[in-house]
Amino acid sequence: MNIDQLTELVLAADRQALCAALAPLDEAQRADLFPEALRLNLTVEDQYGPGMTPAELNEKGYANWRCPRWTAALMLLALGDDKFLRNPYETGCGWLGSDLRDMPHRVLQVLDDRRPPWLADFIRREVKQEMPMIGWLVEFGLMRNGAIPEVVSEDFYRRMAMAPLMSEHFNSDAVKYDDLPKRPKSLAEYIKTEPDILNKHLFCLFEYDAGAFNYSHSPWFEAFKTLCDEEVIDRGRLLAVTASALSRPSRPKELSGYGKLHESLGPSVDEREALVDDYYAALNSDQPAIVGWGLADVEPLVKAKKTDGAELLRHCDNVMRVPQKAQPIKAIKLIRTLTKRQPKLAAPASEVLAIAAGHQRADVQEAAIKELAGLTADFTSTTLERLHDAAGSVASVVKPKLMELLQDSDSSRQGDASEQPRSTEKSSAEKSSGSGDRRGTSSSQGDVAQIAELNTRLDQLDQDIGVASGASAAVRAIDDGPSSFSVDLRPGDVPRCDPKLAVAPLESLEELIDTVASVIERVDDAMDIERILDGLARFGRDRPEDFDKRVAPLRRRIEKLAEPYSRSVVDRGAKFGFSQLLAIWLDMQPIPQDVDSWTDVDGMFFLQRCEEISEQWRMKEEPRRLLALPTHRGGWIDPETLVERIRTDYIEPRSSTDDADLAQALLRLAPDGRAAALKTLQQLTDGQRVSSLYSGGPALRYALGDEADFTSEQDYPWICRRQSAAMHARLLMEQPDFQPRFPVARASTSDDFRIHIDGPAVDDPSLPERLFILAHSRKNQGQPDIRHPDWLHQLEAMRWPANPQPMLMLGYMDAVFDPDLTWTREAARVVLTASCSESKELRLAATDALIDAMGQVRVCPLLLGRQLFGLGDFLTLKRASEALAAAGQVSELHQRSVFQTLDTFVSHLAAVPKDLHFALTPLLETALQSGEALSQGAADVLKSVKGSSKTAKLSKQLLAVEADSGKQLTIRVQAAMAAVERAERWASLATRTQV
After folding, report:
1. Spatial contact of 677 and 642, defined as CB atoms under 8 Å apart
2. Whole-angstrom Cα distance, residue 848 to residue 833?
3. Which residues neighbour 310 within 8 Å (Cβ) at sequence distance 6 or greater?
4. What are the angstrom distances between the C-alpha of 719 and each of 366, 554, 712, 743?
5. What is the model's pLDDT at position 252?
6. From start to end of 149-236, where are the E strands?
C-alpha cells in the first residue's frame, strides 16, 4: 500500500474497498503512511466541499459531496496513532470527530480490524468526552468481538441510552450513502440482530438510572414498543418492569419516561389488576409526576370496578398532599366515583377529602369542599379535626364555603356529644375566621405602638443614613404615602466594607500550593481564584530546595485534568489564562486549548491580568501584591487599602502599575471610605510620583472624586483601560446627570430584551466580553436565557460589583439577592423568566428572590407588573403566577406587592389570554387579604370578559371586591420596618468600619 493507492481509493470514495485494503497493515506500515495521508486529508477538505455543483458531483460519481471526506476520515482513523486521535483538531482536521461519529458501522470495522495495543485506553478515554467521536455502538461492538475488555457499569448503560439520540443513528447521510450490507434502519432492527443486547443488556436500562426515557423524542420508546408488539421481548416482563420502576428513587424525567412507556403499551384491565400494588406504590411517590402516572394507571381499574375502594383510599393521603393541583383534583374525581358506587366508603373518603381541603391551592380546596358537602352525615372526628385545622389557612375565596360546611355538619350532628370536637372552647375554625383581618382594636393599637417605636429608632440614626436607606421616606409614608412604596437605593450610598466579610490573602508558598490543589479539582468559591492570582504574584518565583518534590503531585493532577473538552477546571481555565499561568509557575508544558478559542474574546480581560503576572516573572521584577485583590467578599476593595497598596508597592519603590491590574482595582472600589482615602492620597509627600501616570495616582484620584489632571489620546476610543475604569468608578458616586471626562461604554436592554451597547468599547474593562459577543450575535433576538452560575460567572460578577446590570442581562440572577439592590427592569425580567424555567431549582430561586425583594421593599410592584406584561411571549403565566402566589403567602406587605404586580399586569392587557385565570386566582386571594381593590385599568379589562369560563367567574369576583383601607396601615408599618432595619444595619456597619 502506498499513498497513490490511498489517493485513488479516497477519491473513488469507496469506503468498503479502503477498509479492506488497510485491514492487513501492521502498526509500523500505518505509521509510515500517516504523514502523507494527513496531507491528503487536508487536500480533500480544501477541494471537495459544499460549493461543489451537481454537475461536478455527477462527473466524479459522488452521490453526496461529503463522500470523499468520509472516506478520508476512515483513512486517518486507520493510520493515525493515539496522540493524533486524542486531539486531531491541532492538525487542522476539524471535521474528523463529527464525520466518524456519523459512521459507527465503519468505525467499528476499522478499529476491530486494526486492534492497536492502545485501543482499550483510547476507547475508555474517548467515551468520557462531551462529544466523543467513538460512541456506544462502537464500544459495544468492540467488547462483543473481544477487541477490548468488557467493562459494564452505570456509565456504560448511560452511553447505551444516549447512543441513538446522538449523531450515531442509523439513517445519517454518512450511513445512507454507503454500501453497507444488511444495514439496520431503526433501533429495533439493530437490537434484533444483536443477541447480546437482547439477552444481556436491554432490560438493564431499567435497573440503572440510564436516562433512556428522559426525552419525549427518545427512539427507545418506539424500539421497546416494536419489540414488544413483534413478541421479540416478553410483554408481561416489560409491563412489570415499567410499573415497578415508577417507585424507584430515580430522576423525575426518567420516572416519567417509565410511566409514558408503560401507558404506550396499552395494558388491559386484567394486566393492570396484576400490577395494582406497583400502582399504589406510585401513588405514594414524592414525585408529583409519578403520582400522576399512578392515578392514570388506577383509573381504568376504578371504572371497571376491579379495585378495592378502601385500599385505594388508604393510598390517597399522599396524593392530596402533592403541591400541584392536577393530581389531587383527579383523585377527588376518582373518590366521587367510588363513593357513588360504594356508599359505605363515605366516611373514610371524607377523611381523605379533608386533607385536600387544607391544600395550598384554592382550586383543590374548592373541589374538595364541594365533594364534602354531600358527605356531611358521614364526617368522622378525624374529618372534622382536619377541616378545623384547614380553616386557618384556607383561601379567602373558599373560607365562607368551608365555614358553611362546618356549620351544616355541626347542625346535623347535634345531640351526639361524643362526636363534637372542642365542645368546651372556641374551635380553631372560629378562631381563624377572622385571621388576616387587621381592622380590630388590638391590631390598630399594635400598629400605633409600632409607629411610635419606628419614629424613635429613626431619630437615633444619622440623618444621612436615614435618607439614603429609604427609612425616612418609609416612615413618612405610613401616614400619607403612595399606595405602592419601594426604596430607591443608590449604589454609591451602600456601605460594602463589612469586617465580617473581609478576604484574607494567602500568606505563604505552602498555602498557595494547597489552595491551588483544592481549586483544580473543583472551584467552590471564585474568590480563591483571586487569592491564587495574588499569591502567584507574591510567591510565584519562590523556589525552595524541595519545590519540585512539593509540587510533583500537583503537576500530575493538572496533567490528568487538562484533557481538552473535559470541562474540568483546568480545561476551562486554559482559555482564560488561569491554567496557563499555573503551567508557567510549575514549569509545565502549556495546557491544550480549543483551536478556535482565538475567535472568542470572552474572558480577555481576565486573561490580560494573568499575562501581566507572567510578564512580571519574565522581567524578573520584584514580587508585589496585586492591586485588584478584593478586601471584602463580593469583589469590593476598601479605598484606603488600595491607596496603601499603591503607596508601598508602586509610589515609594518607583514602580509602574499594570494597566489591567489597576483597572480591575478601580472598578472594585467600595463606596465607603473614599473621601478619607482621597485625603490620604493627597497628603503623600512625593507629589511628582503621585502625579505620575505610571504610578496610577491620577486615575485613582479621579476615581475617588478629585479632578485629577490625566490626559490621553484625544480620540476617545483609544482611552486606556485604567482611565476608562476610573471614570466608571467615579460614576458610582456621582449624581445621575454626571458626565465623565470621556465617553464610556454603557449597556442597556430594550423592551424586546435585545442588548444594546453605546459608547466606545475598545479597552473598556467594565463590561464582560460575553455581553459584547451576545449583543452582536444572532442570538440577540429577545429570547431570555437564564443561566446557572458557575465559578467563571462569579469571577465576571466581581469585575464591577457596583454594576450588576451586565450579569443580569446575561441571565445570571445572583445579584437580585443583594439586600441593598433596588430591582431594575433587568432584575425583574431575569427573576420572572427564572420563575417559568423548566428547572425546579431556578423556579425556587425566583420565588425566594421575590419574597426577599418584596419583604425588603426593593422592588416596585408596578415595575414588576409591567415586566410581566412585556415578557408575555416568553413566559408561562401559570408558573409565574405560582411564584407570585407563593410570595403572597408570607405577609400583608407581600400580599399588597403581589396584588399590585398582577393588577398592573392585567391593566396593560389589550386582549384577554386563555390562561389568565392562573393570574386572577392569586390576584383575588391577595385582594381579599390586603384590602386592595382593582385599579380602573384592570377593572376595565376584566369587565370585557364574558361567558362562564373560570376567567369570567374570577373576573366577576374581583370586580365585586371593595377596598378596605383599614388594612393599609399595617402594610405601611411593615414596609417602614424593613427600611428602618436596613438603616440600622448600615449604621452598625459604619460604626464597625470606623473601629
Report:
1. yes
2. 14
3. 345, 348
4. 66, 41, 6, 9
5. 72
6. none
Alpha helices of 437-490 — where are they, by DSSP H? 441-459, 463-468, 471-480
Please state, in angstroms and rounded to a whole number, the distance separating the CA atoms of residues 760 and 359. Answer: 56
Collapsing DSSP states into helix, strand and coil, what is residue 937? helix
Kindly write down the DSSP assignment for every residue of 164-199, as one continuous string: GGSS--SS-HHHHTS--TT---SHHHHHHT-HHIII
Only one residue has cell 519574565, namely 618
CA dist., res. 406 & res. 409, Å (int): 5
Q: Which of 972, 967, 971, 982 has its CA nearest to residue 457?
A: 982
Can you give the three-state secondary structure of 858-882, one letter per residue?
CCCHHHHHHHHHHCCCCCCHHHHHH
DSSP code for 199 = I
Could you tell me if 867 and 990 are in contact, meaning their C-beta atoms sit under 8 angstroms apart? no
3-state SS assignment for residue 900: helix
CA distance 328 to 284: 13
Do the beta carbons of residue 73 and residue 23 sit within 8 Å? Answer: no
DSSP state of 966: G
How far is the C-alpha of 202 from the C-alpha of 287, rounded, in Å?
26
Residues in CB range of 768: below 8 A, 6 or more apart = 602, 796, 799, 806, 807, 810
Which of 394, 504, 494 minimizes the C-alpha distance to 732? 494
Q: What is the mean pLDDT of the chain?
A: 86
> What does the block give as the cell for 297?
394507571
Q: Would you give the DSSP letter of residue 776?
A: T
- C-alpha 437/C-alpha 430 separation (Å) is 13
637 DSSP β-pair partners: 669
**What's the DSSP call for residue 749?**
E
How far is CA 465 from each of CA 309, 495, 621, 665, 988, rounded to the nearest angstrom?
66, 10, 45, 27, 11
pLDDT for position 63: 83
Dump strand ranges (E) for 619-687.
Answer: none
Of the candidates 723, 729, 721, 755, the one whose C-alpha atom is nearest the C-alpha of residue 742 is: 723
Name the residue with cell 482499550.
120
* Buried b / exposed e along 476-515 (16+ C-beta atoms within 10 A): ebbeebeebbbbebebbbbbbbbeeeebeebeebeebbeb
Longest dimension (CA), the chain: 107
The candidate with the shortest Cα–Cα distance to 14, out of 94, 100, 72, is: 72
How remote is the C-alpha of 123 from its chain's centroid?
32
Is the pLDDT confidence value at 867 over 90?
yes
Question: Residue 180 above 70 pLDDT?
Answer: yes
| Rounded distance between C-alpha atoms, residue 50 and residue 39, angstroms | 20
CA torsion angle 791 793 799 802 (round to 10): -110
Condensed to tens digits (0 to 9), the pLDDT of residues 37-78 reads: 999 888 887 777 665 566 665 667 788 888 999 999 999 999
The answer to whether 13 touches 177, Cβ cutoff 8 Å, is no
Alpha-carbon span 349 to 330, nearest angstrom: 14
**Cβ–Cβ under 8 Å, residues 662 and 627:** yes
Contact between 321 and 356 under an 8 Å Cβ cutoff? The reply is no
Task: Dig out the grid coordinates for 919 from the structure.
Answer: 393570574
Query: How far is residue 55 from each of residues 9, 62, 66, 68, 429, measured CA to CA in Å?
Result: 21, 10, 15, 16, 85
Helix, strand, coil shares of the chain as percentages rounded to 5?
A: 60, 0, 35
Beta pairing partners, 758: 746
Task: Tell the burial category of 318 from Cβ atoms under 10 Å away from its Cβ (0-12, 13-18, 19+).
Answer: middle
SS3 per residue for 594-634:
CCCHHHCCCCHHHHHHHHHHHHHHHCCCCCCCCCCCCCECC
The mean-pLDDT minimum among 574-578, 654-658, 717-721, 912-916 falls in: 717-721
pLDDT in tens, 420-466: 444 334 443 333 333 333 333 344 566 788 888 999 999 999 999 99
Q: Is residue 287 within 8 Å of 322, Cβ to Cβ?
A: no
Following CA atoms 866, 867, 870, 871 in sequence, which dihedral angle do they give, to the nearest 10 degrees? -150
